[in-house]
């Protein structure tokens, strides 16, 4: 069966969420304002914010649990970036082992 996927024209990108220095409740208010404007999709990946964006966005959802029922998340898997958090990594690359169903499921669970 062929499934048709439609994507929104505008999403809220969280690549730099760590640099915004905003509390989870403040970010939840921002997400509510965006929802009021029709922006219901968030761009997120485990590498964003030096590997902290997913955790930070989870804190936003904990601050306002009703958001999780109102948003969609677009994410990526398999990208590895240089970071002090992963000293074993010596260069940026695509980790093809991360394309397994288990790895993808773990990377998108908030």
Question: Can you describe this structure?
Answer:
The structure is a single chain. The chain has 110 residues and is an alpha/beta fold. The chain has one domain (12-108). It is built from 4 helices and 5 strands, in the order E-H-E-H-H-E-E-E-H. Strand 1, helix 1 and strand 2 (41-43) form a beta-alpha-beta unit. Helix 1 packs across helix 3 (53-63). The chain starts with 11 loop residues before the first strand and ends with a helix.
Low-confidence residue ranges: none
Helical amount: 25-40%
Number of domains: 1
Gross geometry: globular
Terminus-to-terminus distance: 28 Å
Biggest sheet architecture: 3 strands, parallel
User: What is Rg?
Assistant: 15 Å
Total E-strand runs: 5
Quote the average pLDDT: 81
Characteristics:
single chain, alpha/beta
List the helices and strands and how they pair.
Blueprint: E1 12-13, H1 24-36, E2 41-43, H2 48-51, H3 53-63, E3 72-74, E4 79-80, E5 93-94, H4 101-108
Parallel strand pairs: 1-2, 2-3
Antiparallel strand pairs: 4-5
Helix pairs in contact: 1-3
What would you say about this model in short?
The chain is an alpha/beta fold. It has helices spanning 24-36, 48-51, 53-63, 101-108; strands at 12-13, 41-43, 72-74, 79-80, 93-94. The model has no long low-confidence stretch (mean pLDDT 81).
């Amino acid at each position: 069966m062929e499934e048709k996927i439609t994507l929104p024209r505008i999403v809220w990108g969280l690549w730099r969420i760590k640099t915004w220095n905003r509390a989870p409740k403040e970010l939840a208010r921002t997400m509510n304002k965006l929802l009021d404007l029709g922006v219901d999709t968030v761009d997120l990946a485990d590498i964003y914010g030096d590997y902290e964006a997913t955790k930070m966005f989870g804190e936003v959802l904990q601050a306002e649990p009703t958001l999780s029922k109102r948003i969609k998340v677009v994410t990526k898997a398999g990208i590895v970036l240089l970071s002090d958090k992963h000293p074993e990594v010596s260069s940026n690359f695509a980790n093809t082992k991360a394309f397994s169903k288990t790895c993808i499921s773990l990377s998108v669970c908030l």
